Amino acid sequence: MSKPKVATASLAGCFGCHMSVLDIDERILKLIELVDFDKSPVDDIKEFTGRCAVGLIEGGCANEENVRVLQDFRRHCDVLISVGDCATMGGIPAMRNNIPLKECLDEAYLNGPTVYNPSGIIPNDKEIPLCLDKVYPCHEVVKIDYHMPGCPPSADTIWQTLVALLTNKPVDLPYELIKYD
Amino acid sequence: MSVNLTSAIKEICKFCGNDRTRMMDIVRAVQQQFGQVSDEAMNYIAKCVNCHRVEVESVVSFYVFLSKKQKGGVVIRLCNDVVDKMSGSEVVAEAFEKELGIKFGQTTPDGKITLEYAPCIGMCDQSPAALFNDEIITYLSTDKVKEVVADIKKHYDPSKLKHRLGDGHNADELVHSCVHNNIRNKGRVIFAEFKPEAGLKNALAMSSVEVINEVKNARLRGRGGAGFPTGMKWQFTRGAAGEKKYIICNADEGEPGTFKDRVLLTERADMLFEGMTIGGYAIGADEGILYLRGEYAYLRKFLEKVLADRRSRNLLGKDILGKKGFNFDVRIQMGAGAYICGEETSLISSCEGLRGDPKTRPPFPAQKGYLGKPTSVNNVETLCCVPRVLEMGAAWFVEVGSAGSPSTKLLSVSGDCKQPGVYEIPFGVKVSELLKMVGAEDAQALLIGGPSGQIVGSADFQRTICYDDLATGGAVVVFGPERDMVAVAADYMEFFVEESCGYCTPCRAGNVLLKKYLDKILTGCGEPEDLDILQKLGESVKITSRCGLGQTSPNPVLTTLKNFRKSYETKVKKTTNGMQPTFDIRKAVKGAETIAKRDSVIFVK
After folding, report:
1. Domain assignments of chain B as residue spans, ordered by start
2. Do A124 and B598 make contact, defined as CB atoms within 8 angstroms?
3. Engineering a disulfide at B77: which of A158, B18, B118, B260 sits with its beta carbon 3.0 to 4.6 angstroms away?
C-alpha cells in the first residue's frame, strides 16, 4: 500500500512554522517512513500530484495568490490544519487590518522612513498578486479541521499531531504542548 | 482655554459642591452648555473637583449623551429599536438624512444639528419616535420629518417645536410634551383612584419593622423583572451595619419595549415619591435618589415641582407629617443614555459619578451600596405599589393575582397589535387572553420581559404571565405572522452589542459573535452546524458573564432557536466543497484592483 501524503504551504507567514517542522530533527527520518511529501516547500513540488491525507498551512491570506493556494489545498487534502498564529488568527500581518490598503502601500513604497524610491512607483505587475482588503485567517476562507496555536507551535506539537492523525489515533495533546503563557 | 469655559465649569463644579461623586451632573451640565466635553474642559473639571483627568474622561466616554467631540446645538436621536423599525423608522431615517443633508453620525456643516440613532427611548407605543435634545417627537412619518425639520431650522430650539400636547400631565406646562400615556387597562392597584398620603399616614403610625412586615405579608416582589421580595430587601437594608442608608428608585427604564415607568412618572409621581418616603421610613434612610434615564429628561422639571410641592406640604423634609425624627428627601439623578445603568450596581456606580460599570456582588447593595452605605434599589412600579399596600392593607393587596404572584402588573405592550399601550392586569393572565385584549389574535410570537426575557410562539400562548411561569419586567412586544424571527433576534443582538459595557469578555465579544452568526444565516451563508454553534456560544455567554446583561443577552437567540427552529432551519444549507460561504473574493480584491487599475488575473471575473 502506498504511503499517505502530506502537503504543506506557507502563505502570509514567516516560514517559522516550517522551521519548526524541521525542528523534529532526526524524527524526520521516521516521518519519511510514515508519509510521502506532496506539494511543499520541503521538496519544492509546485503543484499537487494527487490526493493528500493531511495539509499543513502556515500563515493567513494576505493576497489573492494565498487564497488560490489555500483553496487548492482544501480541494486536495482530507484533513486541513491551520498551523501557528498567523494561520489561525492572521498574526502579525493582520496588524494592517485597521489601516486602509492604500495607506499601507504608500507607507511601504513611498513614505516610510527607510524607503528609497526616486521613481515613486508602487510595484504593479500582473505577476504580482493583488493584496486583499485585509489579512484573513485561514478558516475565514475555507473550512479548517484543526487549529494548532503557537508562534511557532513546537516541533513536538507538530510531530505528535501528525503521528496521531497518520496512525488513526485521537489528537490528544498534553497540556504542556498547547499552553503558551 | 476660553474664559467663558473656565468660568462656566467653575460655576458648575461649585454648584455641585466640587464633589467628584456628582460627576454625572457636572459633565451633563458642561455637555448641555457647550455641546461637548472637550479635552480642555475635562482637564479643568478634574482640577476643580480634585480628581484625575482619566476619572472625568472615563465617564464622558461611557455615556452616549456625552461626547468629547463637538456636537450640534440640536441633537436628533432617532430611536432604532425593533418596534420602531416595525413601524417604519427606516423610511423616517432616510427622510431625516434627506431633509438635513447629512448621514447618521454626522453634524450639519453649519454645526447646528447632529443626527444620531438611539436605542429604545421608551416610546414603542407611539413609534417611530425621536429625541430632539430633551424633547420627544412621536408618531414620525416622512411628512412629519419634513415639517419638524423645517420648524427646527427656524429657531434651533427644540422647546419651541410645534406639536400637539399629549393627555394627562403630558399637557402640563412643565412637561409640555406630545407623548401620550396610552393607558388601556386600569387595574385596582396602580391606576385605580388612590387616597394620597393615606398610605404614608398609616405607615408613620406603625413602627418601621411593622411597615416591613406589612410589605412582606403583601408578598410584594420587585416589578423590574427580577422579582426579589421587596420586604426582604428592605429588611436586609435596615439590618445592615451603619447609620446612613439610602433608597434609590430605579427609573432607568431601558429594556427595549418597556415604557410603563414613563407613564407612572407622568401620572403617578406623587404615589412614587410616597412609596419612596415609606421605604425610607422602613429602612431608616433619610435620603432618596430617583435615577431618571436621560431619555426622560423632559419629565425632570415636572418631577422637581412635584418634589417641591411635597416639601411645602411637609411630605418631605424634616419631621414629616409631624413624625418627630423622621427626615427624608429625594434628589433626582439624571442618567446619560446607558442601558446597563438599569442594572442596580451599575446604577449605583453612575450615581457615584463613575462609569456605569456593574460592581462585584457580594457585597450586595443592601450591605454596601451607594457610597458604600446600605442601599435599597427599587423599581418605579414596585415603589408605586407600596402606598397602596399601606393604604389598603396586605390582605387586600393579595386578593387578586395568582398564588405565587399576588396583585397586578403593568405591561407595556407594543408591536403588531391594534392597541399598544400600558395595561394593568392581574398576575396569572393567560397570554392568549392578553393577545385578545390588545388586538393581536393573529400573533406569531411574543417577546415577554424584553429582549433579556424570552420570545415565545403559539405553543406557549396558554401559559400565564406571572413570576412562576412567564416572568416579565413589563415589556411585551407582539410580532405578527409575517415577521422573520431570526431577523428580530439579530436586531436585539445588535442592541446588546451596543450596550455591553465591555468589562468582561464573554459579553463584550460573545454578543458580537452571536450577531455575526445570525447575520451569516440571514445573508444565506448559514450552515446547519451554525445552529449548534449559536446554541453553545449563547449558553457560554450566559454562564460566564459578569452581570445580568450578559447573563440574559443571548436569550433572544436561545429562545428563538428553541421556539422558532423552523425559521432557522429553512435558512441554512449544507456546503460540500469545503469553502467558506462568507468569503467573497471579489469584495476582498476590489480595493487592490482599484488602486492597481487592473483586474485580478487569478480570479478572473
Report:
1. 3-60, 78-163, 184-397, 408-479
2. yes
3. B118
Q: Given an 8 Å threshold on Cβ–Cβ distance, is A130 in contact with B590?
A: no
Candidates B31, B62, B71; CA nearest to B499 is: B62
C-alpha cell at B458: 403559539
Range of the domain at A14: 5-94+133-178
The fold of B408-479 is Ubiquitin-like (UB roll) (3.10.20)
CA B62 vs CA B19, B24, B518: distances in Å = 20, 11, 27
CATH of the domain at A21: 3.40.50.700
**Which residues does chain B have within 8 Å of residue A130's beta carbon, measured at their own beta carbons?**
589, 592-593, 596, 600, 602
Nearest CB neighbour to B591, from listed A75, A80, A101? A101
Q: Give the residue from A63, A64, A80, A97 with the most B CB atoms within 10 Å of its CB, the best one to mutate.
A: A64
How many other C-beta atoms are found inside a 10 Å radius of the C-beta of residue A116? 5
Report if residue A67 sits inside a domain: yes
Structural domain includes residue A12? yes
Indicate the burial class of B362 (C-beta count within 10 angstroms; 0-12, 13-18, 19 or more): exposed
Q: Is B570 on the interface with A (CB under 8 A)?
A: no
Q: Over the stretch B215-237, which tens digit does the pLDDT of each residue have?
A: 999 999 999 888 999 999 999 99
- Give the pLDDT band (50/70/90) at residue B450: confident
| Overall average pLDDT of the A132-158 stretch | 95
Identify the band that residue B1 occupies on the pLDDT scale cut at 50, 70 and 90. low
Q: What is the ipTM of this complex?
A: 0.93
Q: Which residues of A touch B525 (CB under 8 A)?
A: none
Compare all CA atoms of chain A with the CA of B577 and give the residue at the minimum distance: A75
Nearest CA in chain B to A123: B596
The domain at B184-397 falls in which architecture? 3-Layer(aba) Sandwich (3.40)
| Domain-embedded: residue A14 | yes
Going from the C-alpha of B224 to that of each of B42, B170, B217, B471, B557, the distances in angstroms are 35, 24, 20, 10, 22
- The pLDDT tens digits of the residues spanning B236-272 come to 999 999 999 999 999 999 889 999 999 999 999 999 9
Structural domain tally of chain A? 1
Chain B residue closest in CA terms to A70:
B579
Quick one: chain A helix, strand, coil %, rounded to 5? 40, 20, 40
The answer to whether residue A55 is domain-embedded is yes
Fold of the CATH domain B78-163: Glutaredoxin (3.40.30)
Joined together, the cell numbers standing for residue B488 give 428580530
Calpha distance A143→B143 (Å, rounded): 50
Asked if B102 has any chain A CB less than 8 Å from its own CB, the reply is no
Mean pLDDT of B165-169: 95
Q: Which three cell numbers stand for residue B448?
A: 415577554
Q: Do the Cβ atoms of A67 and B590 come within 8 Å?
A: no
Distance, CA of B183 to CA of B106 (rounded, Å) = 37
Contact A130 B592 (CB under 8 A): yes
